[in-house]
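User: tokens in, sequence out, please.
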């Protein structure tokens, strides 16, 4: 059975879709990345490699009020980006529920057997 590999636009995790998975997907369906909870809408599902996703948002939970909300591309584009004391680069977004300012960091996970430079 053929498998299509699609890269998550947020965390770059590889999502694997089998022919059976794709047969069940229709344009407008939403796929959620298991690694970072990014929500992506299927915008094209044709033959072979003719498949496209559009990022809708990343589901996150506010550490202040505990409510879940989607961090959209528009929110990230408007969010200030700062570098913390530890050198980590974070985006700062506001919780839509309680207005708390939240630091979001997206991590690239390297496989354990990856060579270090």
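Assistant: Sequence out:
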């Amino acid at each position: 059975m053929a498998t299509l590999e699609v890269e998550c636009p947020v965390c770059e995790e590889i999502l694997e879709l089998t022919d059976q998975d794709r047969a069940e997907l229709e344009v407008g369906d939403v796929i959620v990345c298991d690694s970072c909870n990014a929500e992506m809408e299927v915008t094209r599902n044709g033959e072979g490699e003719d498949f496209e996703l559009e990022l809708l948002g990343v589901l996150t939970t506010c550490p202040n009020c505990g409510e879940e909300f989607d961090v959209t591309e528009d929110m990230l584009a408007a969010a200030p980006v700062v570098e913390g004391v530890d050198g980590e680069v974070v985006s700062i977004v506001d919780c839509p529920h309680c207005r708390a300012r939240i630091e979001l960091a997206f991590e690239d996970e390297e496989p354990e057997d990856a060579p270090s430079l």
